[in-house]
UniProtKB/TrEMBL annotation:
Residues 24-136 form the SHSP domain. Coiled coil: none annotated. InterPro entries: A-crystallin/Hsp20_dom, HSP20-like_chaperone, Small_HSP. Transmembrane segments: none annotated. PROSITE patterns: SHSP (PS01031). Belongs to the small heat shock protein (HSP20) family. It holds the Pfam family HSP20. This is Hsp20/alpha crystallin family protein.
Amino acid sequence: MLLRTDPFRELDRLTQQFLGTTGTWSRPTPMPLDAYRAGDEYVICFDLPGVDPEAIDIDVERNVLTVKAERRPRQQGEDVQWELSERPLGVFSRQVVLADTLDPDGIAADYDEGVLTLRIPVAEKARPRKVAVAHGGARRQIQA
């Protein structure tokens, strides 16, 4: 139901084939995610440690879900001298293409312990239905 796009993944694969290298060496994504279906909804969890909830922006345009987040540097005094800084800072963005069977109007978002969880309901038209079979030539009726 979800389509993950990473334009650099295919480039990494082609480069590995061309150079004859094996193993994985793709760049780490600053916003990894998990996605799964739980009953009548899809759940997408984004890892966003150290991000202020006010710095998270979620947009849906057509069937493209875009999550943007900004990780800002911690408060610094004039006497702070950085020795090492490996945690990425700045604005990060991730897009997920939603299937037509999902209802983007019903998305619910929750941010807890550095994890942004989005719950996207399955559209009513995509839910399983039972078809009753009538006897004696009567028409079939769909039961929701």
